[in-house]
Amino acid sequence: MTSFPTIDDLDPRQRLLVRIDVNAPVEDGVVQDDRRFARHAETIRELLADDHAIALLAHQGRPGRATFVSLEQHAAILADHLGQSVEFVADTYGDEALSSIEHLEHGDVLLLENVRMCEGELPEEEPDVKAETKLVRTLATSFDAYVNDAYATAHRSHASIVGFPLVTDAYAGRVMEQEYRENTAIRDREFDGTVTMILGGTKAEDTIPVVEQLADVVDQFCLGGVIGELFLRADGHDLGYDVDGMDLFDHQWANHSETIERTLEAHRDRLVLPTDLAYEDDDNRVEVLVEGIVKDTSYLDIGSETIDRYTNLVSTSDAVYVKGAVGVFEDERFADGTVAILSTIADTDCFSVVGGGDTAHSIVLYDLDEKDFTRVSIAGGAYVRALTGESLVGIDVLERGGQK
């Protein structure tokens, strides 16, 4: 159960400021559509059905990065998902934006300019500080209520996330509500059978806390990717260090080796490590057993033996959580592990949550049906924090602020 107001508590026909997260990949200055637009469009359509007037607040990239662009393209993409026009204004809280907001009619949707272009949005500071920014104080007076649907950014103490709930009525949108409920379910609900977690990806600092915090509720952690190699190194294998000019392993081992070794020792009975790996040789996929291996190339996927073990464990599980891919799935030759695991989850009658932006992308890339999973999370950092029981500041302020 959530302890914050949701859009179910909203009266109809209000003027709403809705924070969404349509932060997307950008290639050569062009925004690449992703599932976040579709998710937020569902919330917006529900609000439009109650005849609200809606101004959207969102971000794209960070200052100094190639992905830091205007949201003009986002308005067109969102309009396609909504099936109606979305007006864009190249301003966030100045005179032009305020004029556009003032002229909003019920049933209209307006997208304001990239909020990270505004002074006061960044950096992360206490919510009470952010509530006093000019951005928050100026915009708040133009709306009846604020709706936060940006779960993927719920772990960030930025003005557009934590400031508004302290100065105006605030509600959680559908994405915020559903993501929070499903991602915290691992601690809030009991499962009759085995709980399995697939842990892959590239960041040890994201993975180790998951094992440490969930060892009492997860029966088996199946490891792959960079994380799998680092734990294999801790287990005495000649793996988990950089070759071919890579920069993935050595710095992480230097920073986390003691914690990885301690975690392996403490939870060895729950950690399932790869027994074979795949690499590229003359443009072909080649597999090798871990036992006796000497690393002289990059390993890009778990091998067939490991895939069979992991999918067998998944197929007999009552609940399966996925955090990170077990291979470089963007290359079809090394997508076998990730796709086989996800396909098995889809075919298994189990509670399932797939998290992390890259892993969620693999579902689209390989034509899997999102409906075959209980939840496909569009969040990265917020997903990890929810799994490990850490508080999310965006949720905290909704609980603290609520309705005024």
What is the element layout, followed by pairings?
Layout lengths: L14 E5 L6 E2 L2 E2 L3 H15 L3 E5 L14 H11 L4 E3 L5 H8 L6 E4 L14 H4 L3 H7 L4 E4 L10 H5 L6 E3 L1 H10 L1 H4 L5 E6 L4 H11 L5 E4 L1 H10 L15 H17 L4 E2 L3 E6 L2 E6 L9 E4 L1 H12 L1 E7 L12 H12 L3 E5 L1 H9 L9 E2 L4 H8 L4 H9 L3
Parallel strand pairs: 1-4, 1-7, 4-6, 5-6, 7-8, 9-10, 9-15, 10-11, 15-16, 16-17
Antiparallel strand pairs: 2-3, 12-13, 12-14
Characterization of this structure:
This protein is an alpha/beta fold. The chain folds into 2 domains: 7-180 and 392-401, Phosphoglycerate kinase, N-terminal domain (Rossmann fold, 3-Layer(aba) Sandwich), CATH 3.40.50; 186-388, 3-Layer(aba) Sandwich (Rossmann fold), CATH 3.40.50. The chain has 16 helices and 17 strands. It has a 6-stranded parallel sheet, sandwiched between helices. Strands 11-10-9-15-16-17 form a 6-stranded parallel sheet, with helices on both faces. It has a 3-stranded antiparallel sheet with strand order 13-12-14. Helix 9 links the parallel strand 9 (194-199) and strand 10. The longest helix has 17 residues, at 250-266. It is elongated and about 70 Å long.
Summary tags:
single chain; 404 residues; alpha/beta; Rossmann fold; 2 domains; 6-stranded parallel sheet; 16 helices; 17 strands; 38% helix; 17% strand; elongated
The CATH superfamily title of the largest domain: Phosphoglycerate kinase, N-terminal domain
CATH architecture of the largest domain: 3-Layer(aba) Sandwich
How would you sum up the global shape?
elongated
**What is the number of independent domains?**
2
For the record, the CATH class of the largest domain is Alpha Beta
Ends: how far apart? 21 Å
- Average pLDDT reading: 94
